[in-house]
């Protein structure tokens, strides 16, 4: 059994204080939000082979605590960008499930009108401003959103999700340098899941150089958090948001997470040999969703009945949203030609 | 859009009588355009390497930092890709950036953000996001600028949907097209030419726009159509002037904009003259010359009295040395020879 990337966190061992600090409603909403993402992703994965969703998917299963922890620290009016792994960010920021599934089914009423597919989800009404299929492409763009907030005097904070591999692109460091120089209200939220498609971190970046330390060297407030712990992620991002709103400039947060599924498509591809399947199983023991649910039950914040009700509510919503997407109309020929330019 | 409303209110200033127009240099005209746009709309901001230093982008950005303050006019780190993306994001969130570069060569570092992002966002987002931004750069030529400081890369970008490409050739156009570009809600690239910057010309006061996507006749004639933009067209016009005594006259069509390309004026002129000489400051292969030639070939091959001719740069990098450079760039003589060959047929 080869565990290349061990879990470095402490599960929920030292999290009692969070229960004192937050009300039960907030704490259970975090669970609901993660569980909803998990079940939606499972449902997408379960139907992907039917070939109705003709869009490349990048599942976020295993990384839910990062999506929810980060977005729960943002206001609806805060701006979020992300890379190709969009589903978690979109849902956690409040994106519309029907709009998302219609997009996957290539329907006219998809959240991007069938122009974007899974890699370009957006819902501007809740601040989910866009996503890029070019690794690191959204990082400067989110930085520009922060520049706009600063120059216009808007009080939103910009946040961008990026992967560990994105930090191998120069544009990220150009953006960090500029954001630190101008003290922009932005949070760079790096989900380090140790892989870029099938290439592990040690084949891409020199050993012993932590990503968040590079960001610190660029002059950003920079921390590393347990990305499987929704409470710790929320705390780190909330702190960064507060700094940004106080005019103290950008932050970089490296959340260590683990991708349970393959890079793209359905299923776990670890049998192909790029990682030991045992490593996946090992991380599944530190499940961000179940681990947190257990913690809430131990703390007396959640009971079995409430948990079951959550499952039911989520399952009903998912069925309805799939039905909506499946029955929605396809785009027409004339839709192809609109929006190349605007007036 | 606040920009459009303010623009409409300020329209009458365009009515300067032609004879009474002031003369401004090309760079003064650009400077005036930027000053007016920034005064009109607080969302317009200007950035670029050295925009606030003494040379101020050939003088184009002179005094702007003092007038509008450093948050709106700022020098940049050397981060062309990053800052192009930052401009894109800023534009998506209500600002109107004008990003100035000394040379188009540096845009190549920003191709990812220009081609993969800025140009496509409006389409990918189903019309929800807009990217009103201007990227300005000045083509260099001569003085040993060489392979990496003289490139005219408009041809590389012509095939990218969602972009607009502007190539002003007179001070009047430089101001009017800059104002039009800033007012436009799409990403607009402006390619200037260093050799045009010395000229003086009539420039009305106040705000006026030269429409993007519409060409003009600089001259009217009967023997052939000379079609192009920027310094290449200016050179062709010089060649034409030297042929006046020989009784040769031509339409000189200044397209002003390469994208969208004004098919109407190209075809109108060529249908009249039956002969076309296409000129560009960039490589002849696969760029503006090739595209314009194809538009003619596709639309009116039967009226051509002679094969289409194009004059751009040879399929080579630019040599730095003076002697080689003289051989590399088309000259007035090259243009004269091409015109004579075309009309003799
Ligand atoms: C600039 C660029 N290079 C390569 C790719 C191909 N690609 C798509 S996703 C990906 C892996 C990115 O890994 P990371 O940024 O860590 O995000 P993750 O997939 O792990 O969430 C690669 C290499 C791309 N889309 N863009």
What does this structure look like?
The complex is a heterodimer of chains A (343) and B (345). Chain A is of the alpha/beta class. Helices cover 43% and strands 11% of the residues of chain A. Chain A contains twelve helices and eight strands. In chain A, the strands form two sheets. Chain A has a six-stranded parallel sheet with strand order 2-1-3-4-8-7, with helices on both faces. A two-stranded antiparallel sheet of chain A has the order 5-6. By secondary structure, chain B is of the alpha/beta class. Helix content of chain B is 37%, strand content 19%. In chain B, strand 13 (276-283), helix 11 (288-299) and strand 14 form a beta-alpha-beta unit. In chain B, the strands form three sheets. A seven-stranded mixed sheet of chain B has the order 3-2-4-5-7-6-12, with helices on both faces. A five-stranded mixed sheet of chain B has the order 9-11-10-13-14, with helices on both faces. Chain B has a two-stranded antiparallel ribbon with strand order 1-8. The interface between A and B is large, with 44 and 41 residues. The structure holds thiamine diphosphate (TPP). The site of thiamine diphosphate has 14 residues of chain A, from strand 5. Thiamine diphosphate binds next to strand 5 of chain A.
In short:
With 343 residues, chain A is α/β, with parallel strands linked by helices.
What order do the SSEs of chain B take from the amino end to the carboxyl end, as H and E? Answer: HEHEHEHEHHEHEHEEEEHEEHEHEHH
Structural class by helix and strand composition of chain A: alpha/beta
Distinct compounds present: thiamine diphosphate
Question: In what order do the strands lie side by side in the largest sheet of chain A?
Answer: 2-1-3-4-8-7
Give the number of DSSP strands of chain B.
Answer: 14
- Which range does the strand content of chain A fall in? 5-15%
Question: Approximately what portion of the residues of chain B adopt beta-strand conformation?
Answer: 15-25%
Low-confidence stretches of chain A: none
pLDDT < 50 stretches of chain B: 8-16
Number of helices of chain B: 13
Indicate the multimeric state: heterodimer
Count of strand segments of chain A: 8
Mean pLDDT of chain A: 97
As a whole number of angstroms, the C-alpha radius of gyration of chain B is 20 Å
Q: What percent of residues of chain B adopt helix (DSSP H or I)? A: 25-40%
Average of pLDDT of chain B? 93
Helix content of chain A: 40-55%
Biggest sheet features of chain A:
6 strands, parallel
The computed structural class of chain B is alpha/beta
Note the run of SSEs of chain A as H and E.
Answer: HHHEHHEHEHEEEHEHEHHH
Computed CA radius of gyration of chain A, to the nearest angstrom: 19 Å
